[in-house]
Amino acid sequence: MDWLTRMNNALSYVEDNLSGEINHETLAEIACCSASNFFRMFSFITDVSLSEYIRRRRLTLAALELQTGNVKVVDLAMKFGYDSPVSFSRAFHILHGVTPTQARTDGVMLKAYPKITFQISLKGEKEMDYRIETKEAFQVFGIEDLFPAEAANDSNSTLRKPADLWDECHANGVYEKLAAAAGDLPAFVNSELCKVHAVCDYKETAQEVFPYMLCAFRGSGSKVDGYAIADIPAHTWAIFPTEKFAWDDCGKVLSSLYKRIFSEWLPTSNYEQVGSLDMELYGGDDEKGYVEIWLAVKKKG
Prior knowledge:
Elements: H1 3-16, H2 24-31, H3 35-46, H4 50-68, H5 73-79, H6 85-96, E1 131-135, E2 138-148, H7 162-171, H8 174-182, E3 197-200, E4 209-217, E5 228-232, E6 235-241, E7 245-246, H9 250-268, E8 271-284, E9 288-299
Antiparallel strand pairs: 1-6, 2-4, 2-5, 3-4, 3-8, 6-9, 7-9, 8-9
C-alpha cells in the first residue's frame, strides 16, 4: 500500500468518526506510522493542525444539519464532542460568524470546509535537491523535551513547540554551552556545519507527543555529562539541503521544505520513511543560515 493510499485511508477514518471518538492508535495503524508522525505530516502538508481540521469539519457538518433539519443545539453539541451547548455555540460562532440559532435563517452566510484528499501535485515549478547516503550508527547528546504532536507546524498554536526550546536555549546560554561541549564534528558530516543541530522522534513516546532534542554529535572530544544521549541506528538517509536564508526566516524555510518532502518527494520516490526519525543539521554564519533535513528511509519493498 503506497503512502498516498495510507494517508487517504487515515483521513477516511477521521471522516467516518467525526460524530464519535477518533482513536489516535487506530489512526496510526491505518497510516502505518506513529500518531505523532501522522500529525506532523498532516500539519506540514496542509498548514493546519489535525485537531483544527477536525474542528472545522465537525462545525461544517453541524451547520448543514441546522439548515436541513430541526435538530436541537444541545444534541449537536453532544454529537460532535462538545461539553455543553455553550462551548459548542461559542466554537460555532468563531468559525461561522453567526450563532447556531442564526444559522437556521434563510440566506445566512456560512463557511464550509470540505474533506481533504491527499494527491500528488505535479507543479514542476522548482527542482528539489536531495542525496541518498548510508550512515553507520552514531550517538547524539543534548537538551531534549517532549512536545504535543498537534503543535509541530501550527504557528498560531499556544502549545509548546520546538522553536520555543531553541529560543530558551539561546536566551539562557545553554546553546553556547552545548556547542562548547560538542567537540569535533564526525567525518561523515560536512565540516562547515554548526556544532548544534536537532533530532526528532528518536525514541518511543506516548502517541500524542514527540521527542525533540537540540543535539551535538558525540565524538572523542565531547563532554556529555549532564546531557541526554540518544542512539541513532545505522540508516539510509534522504538528505535535503536548503539554500541560504536569513535566520529570521528559518521557521518558514523549514516548514516549506518539510511540506515539499512529504507532499512531493516521498509520494513519488522509490523510498519510504523508516518510523518517523529525522534530523535538522544547521550551518551558516551570523547573517545567513542553511539547513539539511535528514530523513531516515528505506527502499520500497
